[in-house]
Amino acid sequence: MGFDHPQWEMWSSSKHGVRYLLKQQGILPAESAAPKCQTCHMQGGNHEVRTGWGFLAVRLPLPEDPQWKADQVTILQVLGVLDPEGKPTGRLDVVKAGDVARLTQEDFDRERKKMVDTCSQCHATKFAEGELKKAEDVLREADHLLAEGIRVITGLYQDGTREQPESYAFAFPDLLTFHDAPSVIEQRLFEMHLKHRMRAFQGAFHANPDYALWYGWSEMVRDLSDIQRMAVEMRAAKAD
Ligand code: HEC
Ligand code: HEC
Q1: Distance between CA atoms of 93 and 70, rounded to whole angstroms?
Q2: Which of 12, 107, 158, 196 is most buried by a 10 A CB count?
Q3: Below-70 pLDDT ranges, the chain
Q4: pLDDT at position 42, please?
Q5: Phi/psi at 2 (nearest 5 deg)?
Q6: Ligand 1 centroid vs 26 CA: distance in angstroms?
Q7: 54 Cβ inside 6 Å of ligand 1
Q8: CB-CB contact of 133 with 62 (8 Å)
Q9: Counting ligands in written order, which one lies closest to the CA of residue 107?
């Protein structure tokens, strides 16, 4: 629950959650299939709660698709994990130590198989793989919108329209400043990332198209046009 943790809301209004709640109320028979958090995240009582894409949906190796790869590099840069040349920074060690992202293909494949095996208790394996793939397509498109937003703001620092905030290590926005982002345009980017991108891809992974589309994707499209509009206005104000 909360700003960046809406999984309960997503699940409870998905077919899975609705069935579970109807079962609890005795409207559906007790033997009805309805997965809850533990079914998919604590397989066999395992408390790791580790997934392929993790909480922030970044991972290594980078995607093969060139556009998506470029977009993920941009996102890793604003997370401070890669520097402007694309080389790892000290934050990568923090990520490693915290186990917050999968950093090898084997690691990712293991988590993915665990999830598909779980879905396969109730669904055909092909269906499950297809649904997870669709969620990844949503993630790829969401990453593109976010990366475009990041590039607009980076452009403002690069052409001197906006001074790079002193606390920033590099000449692009730093997503981990959270609400302390220095101005409206960076705050909007922060929301685009932690609120709307999260809803877009997590909604898709939790079989909730309403979240993925309306609370996620649609908001991101609006975030990007607002960021673009603000950038135009800032350049015009500077030129005056
Ligand atoms: C039907 C299976 C399913 C159910 C039920 C489910 N999830 Fe998920 N969850 C997923 C999938 C699939 C992903 C994304 C997996 C990936 O990254 O490959 C995910 C990702 C997540 C993540 C982000 C990953 C991370 O490691 O932080 C969180 C948090 C999460 N779920 C919480 C919940 C909560 C809380 C509930 C119950 C309210 C829930 N999920 C119910 C399938 C499920
Ligand atoms: C405990 C059994 C169970 C598990 C595990 C499970 N599901 Fe489901 N799922 C169901 C049931 C039952 C429905 C409702 C089917 C219906 O309404 O026809 C459903 C519905 C869905 C739907 C909606 C389909 C539609 O027509 O709207 C999707 C998508 C889905 N599941 C994906 C997944 C994925 C992906 C996983 C694994 C991450 C998963 N499910 C795990 C039982 C399960």
Answers
A1: 22
A2: 196
A3: 1-4, 45, 47, 177-181
A4: 86
A5: 100, 180
A6: 25
A7: yes
A8: no
A9: 1
Sign of CA dihedral 148, 92, 41, 8: negative
Region at 38 (left for phi over 0; alpha for psi -120 to 50; beta for the rest): alpha
Atom of ligand 1 lying closest to residue 17 CA? 5
User: Closest-lying ligand to the alpha carbon of 116?
Assistant: 2
Q: Is 37 in the pocket of ligand 1 (CB under 6 A)?
A: yes
Give the C-alpha separation, 16 to 128, whole Å. 14
Measured in Å, residue 68 CA sits from the centre of ligand 1 at: 22
Residue 134's nearest CA partner among 186, 208, 187 is 208
Side chain identity, residue 226: D
> What confidence score (pLDDT) does residue 94 get?
84
Q: What is the pLDDT of residue 2?
A: 62
Q: Quote the ligand 2 centre to 119 CA distance (angstroms).
A: 7
Number of residues that make up the chain: 240
